[in-house]
Automatic annotation (TrEMBL):
Record keywords: DNA-binding, Phosphoprotein, Transcription, Transcription regulation
Name this protein carries in UniProt: Response regulator
InterPro entries per UniProt: CheY-like_superfamily, NreC/VraR/RcsB-like_REC, Sig_transdc_resp-reg_receiver, Tscrpt_reg_LuxR_C, WalR-like
Modified positions (4-aspartylphosphate) in chain numbering: D57
Keyword Phosphoprotein: yes
Domain named Response regulatory: residues: 6-124
Record domain HTH luxR-type: where: 156-221
Gene3D superfamilies found in the cross-reference section: 3.40.50.2300
Length: 229
C-alpha cells in the first residue's frame, strides 16, 4: 500500500476512542479519517470516508460491531476496508461472530501502543493479524459449545471436496495458526505459492478473509479442537 493508511476508529467509550485516535494521529504513515461512537455511525462514516482499516469495538449499544462489520463489508466497493475488531477479552464469543462477518482479525484492548500500530500497519498492508494461539483458542472454545461441525444450525458448510490435496494441507496449517512463511517452510514451497493456494481456496469456498478460512476449517471438522498442530 502506498501513501498513508486511512483508519476509522469505532468505540462507544469516549476515553478509549480518544486514546486510540491520539496514538494513531501521532504515528507516521497513518491518517485518522473519522471516529464513531456506535455501529450505525460507523457504517455511515465508512461509506463516506472509505478507510483502509477500521478499528471496530464489538460491544456497543444499538448496532454492535458484528452487525456493523457485516453491513460495512456488504456495502463497500472494492477494495473493501479491513476490519480489526477490538475486544476486552481474548475469549469473547462476539469476536467469533465478527470473524464470520468478515473481519480480518482482532486485537485486545490492553495491547500496548507498539502492538496496535503494528496491527494497523499489517492489516493495512493486506495481512490478517491476530495472535494465532488466541484465535485458535477462540474458535476451539466456540466449537466445544456446538454439537459438532455445523452444530450451530447456521448456514450450510462449504464443500471441501472442491479443494486440491495441497489446498487442504494449506487450509489445515492456516487453521493451526501458522504464518505463510511457516507453511512455506513446512511444505517446502515458496510463500508466493502458499498465497496462491490460499487465494484459490478462499475463491472456491466463497470466503472473504483468512479468518473465515480458520473458522471454516473448524466448522467442517477438517481441524478438530484440541488436537495437536
Amino acid at each position: 500500500m502506498t501513501g498513508s493508511i486511512k483508519v476509522l476508529v469505532v468505540d462507544d467509550q469516549f476515553l478509549i476512542r480518544a486514546g486510540l485516535v491520539g496514538l494513531l494521529r501521532a504515528a507516521p504513515g497513518i491518517e485518522v479519517v473519522g471516529e464513531a461512537g456506535d455501529g450505525d455511525e460507523a457504517v455511515e462514516l465508512a461509506a463516506r470516508t472509505r478507510p483502509d482499516v477500521i478499528l471496530m469495538d464489538i460491544r456497543m449499544p444499538g448496532t454492535n460491531g458484528i452487525t456493523a462489520t457485516a453491513r460495512i463489508l456488504a456495502q463497500a466497493p472494492e477494495p473493501a476496508p479491513r476490519v480489526l475488531v477490538l475486544t476486552t477479552f481474548d475469549l469473547d464469543e462476539y469476536v467469533y461472530g465478527a470473524l464470520r462477518a468478515g473481519a480480518s482479525g482482532f486485537l485486545l484492548k490492553d495491547s500496548g501502543p507498539e502492538r496496535l500500530l503494528a496491527a494497523v500497519a499489517a492489516v493495512g498492508g493486506g495481512d490478517a493479524l491476530f495472535a494465532p494461539s488466541i484465535t485458535r483458542r477462540l474458535v476451539e472454545a466456540f466449537a466445544r459449545q456446538t454439537e459438532g461441525p455445523g452444530g450451530d444450525g447456521g448456514e450450510p458448510l462449504p464443500d471441501l471436496a472442491a479443494l486440491t490435496l495441497r489446498e487442504v494441507e494449506v487450509l489445515k496449517l492456516i487453521a493451526r495458526g501458522l504464518t505463510n512463511a511457516d507453511i512455506a517452510e513446512r511444505l517446502y514451497i515458496s510463500e508466493a505459492t502458499v498465497k496462491t493456494h490460499l487465494n484459490r481456496t478462499m475463491s472456491k469456498l466463497d470466503l472473504d478473509s483468512r479468518a473465515q478460512a480458520v473458522v471454516v476449517a473448524y466448522e467442517t471438522g477438517l481441524v478438530r479442537p484440541g488436537t495437536p498442530g
